[in-house]
Design brief:
The protein is α/β, with parallel strands linked by helices. It starts with a strand and ends with a strand. The protein is built from 13 helices and 13 strands.
């Protein structure tokens, strides 16, 4: 008999940016790293003979809590990967929910017929992960091992160990928090689940699942908690852009003249580089924010530049603003950029704490007229 601890990876970009990250290779967040530290403490007294992980980065980084303190090697296994979401990979949940509501329903209900375009079915996923864990257990008969895997992959495997059909997953398999631990005893092709999806090593502040708005809304792609994006129209939405810009400027720089024409020229120039360089963030049918990116500035230094990052007053304090950061990363990472940069006034009481909380660091002064701004950078490689 082999004892197998199954761990879901720590909080990763897709969890907070609300993007579909099946086999997209994303990073952990700042909170995710704290969860890894808590997981390490939980496993400190537990003996392990071997540690395996999905080969995706978020699982490898989580597995450090399991193998490094015990001086073990890490074994990578693609059979532990998350569900392949095909052409939906790295798309916003809000976009797919809007364009493919039936597909989202099939995904959320774990329908046997669900398959994202070019992706994998629940039946295929469950067989892959179940058989991978059985093979690893057979390799370590009489020992204790740990595997680092993903949310849907974990729930599918548990359904197999309990003998449930995949369509019973939503009602009979518990949701798993990031770094939650399950434990299974395996002998041959028989499995006994000792406990499932336990996150007792996390404080309430470190829990991701309990704080996610989509869970309260009842749908993983609910329009209330998932933004989608469309290109800004430089001609038809000129006044919209200037209204957002003026509001921000006058709040942060009271008494300093507002250069409407200069700001509009910059926005039109960025949009001319690529229509998706300036996007409206949409909450349902309403404009909830605007993201302006300059695809050329800092290109030679390997960085992407966020020119303007804005949420409307109505959309603030809903936990939505972080999703614009995900859109920026998904724009610049495929271009080979390894960092994001933006400018922020040192007395911006809303913006500066937000950026610092989400991984930006102050790297110097941005020389601009007529005000001095701080230049912030966040690594995305």
């Amino acid at each position: 008999m082999t004892t197998v601890y199954i761990v879901r990876h720590a909080e990763a970009e897709g969890n907070i940016y609300r993007r579909i990250h099946g086999q997209y290779n994303s990073n952990l967040t700042e909170k995710g790293l704290l969860q890894v530290a808590a997981l390490e403490e939980r496993f400190r007294p537990i003996h392990l003979d071997a540690v395996y992980s999905s080969d995706l980065r978020r699982c490898r980084m989580t597995a450090r809590a399991l193998y490094e303190p015990k001086g073990l090697p890490l074994h990578l296994n693609a059979g532990l990967r998350e569900m392949n979401m095909g052409r939906w990979e790295d798309r916003p949940w809000g976009e797919i929910g809007r364009l493919h509501p039936e597909g989202i329903r099939g995904f959320q209900t774990c329908s046997r017929s669900f398959r994202a375009p070019g992706g994998e079915s629940y039946v295929e996923l469950r067989a892959r992960v179940r058989d991978t864990i059985f093979r690893l257990a057979a390799r370590h008969e009489g020992q204790t091992i740990a595997v680092s895997t993903h949310y849907i992959a974990l729930r599918a495997a548990l359904s197999a160990f309990w003998g449930f059909d995949v369509e019973e997953i939503p009602t009979r398999v518990p949701m798993s928090d990031n770094t939650a631990v399950s434990c299974v005893q395996i002998e041959g092709r028989e499995a006994k689940v000792l406990f499932a999806c336990d996150n007792s090593h996390l404080t309430e502040e470190l829990s991701t699942l309990n704080g996610q708005k989509w869970k309260k809304d009842g749908s993983i792609a609910a329009p209330e908690s998932n933004l989608w994006y469309r290109p800004w129209d430089p001609e038809g939405e000129r006044e919209l852009y200037l209204r957002f810009r003026r509001e921000t400027w006058e709040q942060v720089h009271p008494g300093v003249p507002f250069d409407a024409e200069g700001f509009y020229r910059d926005a039109a120039r960025c949009a001319a580089q690529d229509p998706w360089a300036v996007v409206c963030a949409m909450q349902g049918d309403a404009v909830a924010g605007l993201l302006q990116m300059d695809l050329e500035r800092y290109r030679e230094e390997g960085a992407g530049f966020i020119f303007f990052y804005y949420m409307t007053p109505q959309a603030r304090e809903q936990g939505l603003g972080i999703q614009l950061l995900g859109q920026a990363i998904s724009t610049f990472r495929p271009l080979g950029r390894t960092a994001l940069r933006l400018r922020c006034a040192p007395d911006n009481a809303l913006g500066l704490p937000f950026y610092l909380h989400h991984g930006f660091a102050d790297i110097g002064t941005a020389q601009t007229e007529p005000v001095e701004l701080r230049l912030l950078e966040k690594r995305i490689d």
